[in-house]
Records
---
Amino acid sequence: MNVYEQVIELAKRRGFFWPSYSIYGGESGFYDYGPLGVMLKDNVIRAWKEAYIAEGGIMIDTPVIVPEAVFRTSGHIEKFSDLATDCPKCHNREKLETVMKASGSELVLKSEDEANEFLQNNTVKCVKCGTRIMKAYESKQMFKIPEQVNSGNLYLRPETAQGIFVNFKLLNTVFRGKLPMAVAQLGKGFRNEISPRQSLLRMKELNMGEVEVFVLPDKKYWKELPNGDQIKFVPKNGPEIFSDVKSAFENGIISSNAMGYFVNKTFRILKSIGLQPENIRFRQQHDDELAHYSVDSWDAEALLDDSWVEIVGIADRNDLKRHQDATGESMSVKVDNSDIIPSIIEPAYGIDRMALSLLMHTFYTRENSFKVLRLPESVAPYHAAVLPLVNKDGLDEMARELHEKILAKDPYVYFDQSGSIGKRYARQDEIGTPYCITLDQDTIKEKTVTVRERDSTKQARISVESLVQHGILDNPEILKFRNSLN
RNA sequence: GCGGGCGUAGUGUAGAGGUUAUCACAGGAGCUUCCCAAGCUCUUGACCCGGGUUCAAAUCCCGGCGCCCGCACCA
């Protein structure tokens, strides 16, 4: 079994995530987060959000349902509902328009029915192998809301970004007219994937964390570039290079300060939630794979088993002008007495992909075959578990009482008294709980407990008092123990 | 969406027309247990869905749904 399969098995068994609606046969493209998964996902979101708040970013929350006009402007309507053909022989897929032109027809067909009728009555051939094509299909990548009585067409958003763009002026006013400005939005996006696969990697309903950084178009500057992180870059022209982002910018690998800055920031966020830095790289998209709105894009990719998977996309885009042209509403900002429409650097995070990647990057199997998630404290669903060594001499009761007291300081603490102590440690290792607090005979005598650290399995004695006073993560005795391990 | 493979307890599996569907782990109750899935007793729990063939289907056939692998798609 590869790591992906092992993580999927663990996720379902312990309650991180599983396929949705399985008692009704399942519905592909949808996954539920289980009890532990919700906690993990929330922690990932918190790490992401706090990283941008600390950057001076502001947040917004806009509807998932969006009027058609917005997506006409953004180009999504045009780009995401193509009539297309699929060659019956070689399965080469083309836009209907392309195939028609190659067969000498300039007709523009609007609907699937119209196209099918034309293809039945005229000879249109596959541009690759020459086989006659008889059928067209409509490739719709956005979900359309069924006709409503009192409104025009509505769609489920395929990205959250437009909710920020359409509010640009209001946001910038709230931000007191300053640039650069970063606005983040967390929310669901919806994409009608043709074949959703790989669990959380390709869902029809996904959690997105998008940040729109509005910068001056001539400089695209955010902040001075740091040079502490060594990052693997794969530029579209030229060889793979291992470099800090400052040199990458100075050497022309990265085109703007802001792009470089947020590449580096993304690297740090991914590292902080538990992805392995050596298995992260930034790959620049080739011109033919760029989204319709993007002129340059760097993808953060994580190595999952043997393939590199896009986790975050950082695009250089320019949507404000389009909205200004479409609505007549000014999107410009006064800068040094001239009106400037800002450019946009957009780091777009796939929250679900981050969650799956961190499970895969932190998963490992001990020599005794026990499974461990080496989750950072900041994302682990539980910070600690309280365990009586044995269920006698009143230890179980003492453990319950201590658990109650710790909960007042930190709610993310589990209690378990079933099975043997070893079994309970193993259970916690498997869900990534960093510490286990065990009460034993000495607890009765001297009011101390052992704390066991997950990765080393080493233990230290700490006072009951410190737990009651400080909980787990800010506990000075636990901190001291943890530091002694490195 | 196309082609191929596969759907049996929570997980991993055995069974290839015929009594109460195998085994392990996990789960629950109890006993035991002073530190890493120990042991003992008891116990919960499954043939993806629908149709067909048959005296009889988890098993054979057809359809659906789902998963996996390729191709395609992936703003």
---
Amino acid sequence: MGDMTAHGPKLTQRGQATRERIVTAAARLMYERGVAGTSTPDVRTAAGVSSSQIYHYFADKSALTMAVIEQQTEMILRRQNTLLDKLDSFEGLWAWRDCIVDLVRELGCAGGCPLGSLTTELADHDPRAREALAAGFSRWGTAIRDGLRTMIDLGRLSPDADPDHLSLAMLAALQGGLLLAQAQHTTAALEAGLDAMIERIACHAVPT
Amino acid sequence: MGDMTAHGPKLTQRGQATRERIVTAAARLMYERGVAGTSTPDVRTAAGVSSSQIYHYFADKSALTMAVIEQQTEMILRRQNTLLDKLDSFEGLWAWRDCIVDLVRELGCAGGCPLGSLTTELADHDPRAREALAAGFSRWGTAIRDGLRTMIDLGRLSPDADPDHLSLAMLAALQGGLLLAQAQHTTAALEAGLDAMIERIACHAVPT
DNA sequence: ACTGGATTTGACTATCCAGTCCACTCGCGG
DNA sequence: CCGCGAGTGGACTGGATAGTCAAATCCAGT
């Protein structure tokens, strides 16, 4: 389900490339300035296409925004793929934590989570966008949950631990930490949140 | 420090009232539609004032936004004042948790945190707004931290517990939980995040 | 009552934006 | 090599937006 864009006419290779250039440019701008702060002329210039191109590939700005949501979701999951796969041990959890903290620090604590920004701006008045964002978070949470489940299967974590509950909590700490990093220009809250959550999981650890 | 608005000329009682009406209307609209999504005509209509009134009390939209940030910070801390004061026991922590979850549920999981929304929209490109938001979060975190400190003083919590660390973590879980509630239309993540964090604190509990 | 500053009004400008339209070019299938 | 649909360029529209201005009105202190 949810293949892309429901674009009636065929797309040639060149068309596909242009479409992607538009989405990528829009994603960057919307991430930096927000959706409302990104005008179609801005996107036009950044993508190096002319005005009507955008409306040739997307019904309206809302459709473009949906494409941006999908692209950002894929980007996040692809970027974290390596680490997310290794979330089946405490070393893996800590490595994941360190990687996120380092990344945020490198970016000067700015930007926050692409999905998070889009959520605050769109969730309340664009139901379709909200669903897409929820789906994105759901996939993210599932990746974490699967790691925890594996830890239980491998006997590293007590069966008392609830992977669904804990993965949601972890995602919450991560999102909140990113938000606070943006406001306070420190990774302190992000680190505290992730640390506390991993330590909480460690409460269920099976001593080796 | 940071008294308000640096408004040169004197404000009569009537002027003060009008100014407040503008800020309140702007705060509601910016909460519902975002800052960029709120136009001055919108504010004008909602506050029942004429166009130039806004610019009589505020230098520009950015100054109005700053006033909104301050008002929202006060509002949050005032609204949670009762509960925040009782954060010095586990009963208090759980009551606070339940109250937040109930509130979010009543609001249909919409809206998120007023400070959180403003943060994602403003933090990266408006340094003064970012500082004001950071100060707001700081006051909020301090309230939580003081509760935890009291718990240590009262011997309910082990001195090993780090109130600074834990209060930041709690704030992160709260903010992230609110964000995820907005996206997923469930309080599941909010509950999971707060629960996990309180349970994490409970690890340091001193048995009675 | 009167005066001066605070307050209010509504029209006005210059800019910008989402979305449309039409003429033009490109390149693939036949 | 030709026709046709996909792709592209750029001008254009109708509406909205931030911010200004000069004139009218209110009200507190005298």
